[in-house]
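Hey, resending since the last one bounced:
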Amino acid sequence: MTESQYFTLCNDVAAEIKKAVSGLIGKPEAGMTLRIGADGTPTEKIDEVAENAALSVLEADGRSMLFVSEELGEKNIGGKPEFTFVLDPVDGTFNAVNNIPFFCVPIAIGKSDLSDIRYGFVKNLVNGDIYSAQKGKGAFLNEKQIHVSEISQLSKLSVLSYSHRPHAVLINNHTVRRVRVFGCAGLELCYIASGIFDAFFDMRGMLRITDIAASKLIVEEAGGEITDEKGNPLNTPLDVRKRVNIIASNGITHDKLLELV
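The structure tokens again:
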């Protein structure tokens, strides 16, 4: 597949999801729990509606793929898979259900684990921004190339941190300029890639590959670095039951940040 084919497929899926869930945003019924999903967490109505919308596009596409999603788990579409299509139908479900304007559709295309993602796509479902990256070709926001920040002093860093008690780390103290959390890892990591924020921590052991597969590549292609809490590369299998801890940064400060974990 070419970069334009990747983009078209991902954008078609995201557009269909946005259309399907638009009437549910901020509605109590959107948060109705239907069952426990393949990832072990509750599947809410908005998640299932979004996933079904994505499947309708992918099944009509004609290409063979392995579909990996939080709710369904895995599904072979067509014959022998040409690639793995990794989707979080709505990243930031709580935000969407409660009409908090920060949620997205993250999509990654790869093979078997986080180390071989070849294309990442994240669409902000509120303002329509699209972050994308193909391996080896840079990262983009609405087709304009983006780069991580160049800040090197810890005291000047703007940090996104999911490391509250009992998983607290020193970064939560006044070591840095500011600490925020928005409840949508896929989009927050794109803020690292675009240089709005400088680092991201999640030490809760709760992140799934569907949360980060797309944004991991986008961060790396923007010049950033993303590892586990020990500084090891991320090579987790594309399995929604797996959980990871991560640190993402502009790369310049990564070693210093690892010392604070």
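The first strand starts at residue 33 and ends at 36.

Sorry for the duplicate.
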